[in-house]
């Protein structure tokens, strides 16, 4: 959704000006950042299970680290296929860990486990297919950047939802029934469950149409 927009350009410009030079001076390597992102995602998953606010905050930090390793690699002239492959694989684990923590949170709350289990599975399947359709298309020589709900957007949505969810519970929990608990987080999960699979279908049809031409 933000690929190729001024927002993305401005974001990476800030990284290059303020964070990357500091990491270069500290002799931090891109792979260090990549593995740090995995460890932060572990903390985010555990935190989401008990404290969604902290889980959301750590999820946003995970997203920052995910973009920072690539920027650092380019600044150091160390862009390698092995690093890109490592980053892509660990990204999948990162998302799985975070969503597993969210599932466990709802399980602890005594919410409808089958409903949230299905919701999380749909999101994970959709997220996987969004990445797979792009990877397969690029393997066939086709660009595939169409669609919303790419990894960056998913991480931001989940992070913000985790941070706002406790506030939402306090604001509407006093005057409404129990069904309003965790409404913000639930609504974001519903959006992701539909949006990721819709994006995967969009990419599938887009690439298929281009290949047939």
Supply the key terms.
mainly alpha; Four Helix Bundle (Hemerythrin (Met), subunit A); 213 residues
Set out the fold topology.
Layout: H1 6-25, H2 30-50, H3 52-76, H4 81-108, H5 113-139, H6 151-173, H7 183-212
Helix pairs in contact: 1-3, 2-3, 2-4, 3-4, 3-6, 4-5, 5-7, 6-7
Structure description:
The protein has 213 residues and is mainly alpha-helical. The protein has a single domain, classed as CDP-alcohol phosphotransferase transmembrane (TM) domain (Four Helix Bundle (Hemerythrin (Met), subunit A), Up-down Bundle), CATH 1.20.120. 82% of the residues lie in helices and 0% in strands. It is built from seven helices and no strands. The protein has helices spanning 6-25, 30-50, 52-76, 81-108, 113-139, 151-173, 183-212. Helix 1 (6-25) crosses helix 3, helix 3 (52-76) packs antiparallel against helix 4 (81-108) and helix 5 packs parallel to helix 7 (183-212). The protein is globular. The two termini are 25 Å apart. The model has no long low-confidence stretch (mean pLDDT 88).
């Amino acid at each position: 959704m933000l690929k190729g927009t001024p927002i993305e350009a401005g974001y990476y410009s800030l990284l290059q000006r303020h964070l990357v030079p500091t990491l270069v001076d500290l002799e931090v390597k891109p792979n260090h950042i990549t593995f740090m992102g995995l460890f932060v995602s572990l903390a985010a998953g555990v935190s989401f299970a008990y404290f969604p606010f902290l889980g959301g905050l750590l999820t946003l930090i995970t997203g920052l680290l995910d973009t920072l390793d690539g920027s650092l690699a380019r600044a150091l002239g160390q862009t390698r296929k092995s690093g890109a492959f490592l980053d892509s694989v660990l990204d999948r684990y990162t998302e799985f860990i975070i969503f597993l923590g969210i599932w466990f949170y709802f399980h602890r709350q005594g919410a409808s486990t089958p409903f949230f289990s299905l919701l999380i599975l749909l999101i994970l399947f959709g997220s996987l297919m969004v990445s797979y359709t792009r990877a397969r298309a690029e393997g066939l020589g086709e660009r595939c950047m169409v669609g919303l709900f790419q990894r960056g957007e998913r991480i931001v949505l989940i992070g913000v939802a985790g941070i706002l969810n406790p506030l939402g519970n306090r604001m509407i929990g006093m005057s409404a029934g129990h069904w309003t608990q965790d409404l913000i987080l639930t609504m974001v999960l519903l959006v992701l469950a539909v949006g990721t699979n819709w994006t995967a279908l969009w990419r599938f049809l887009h690439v298929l149409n281009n290949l047939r031409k």
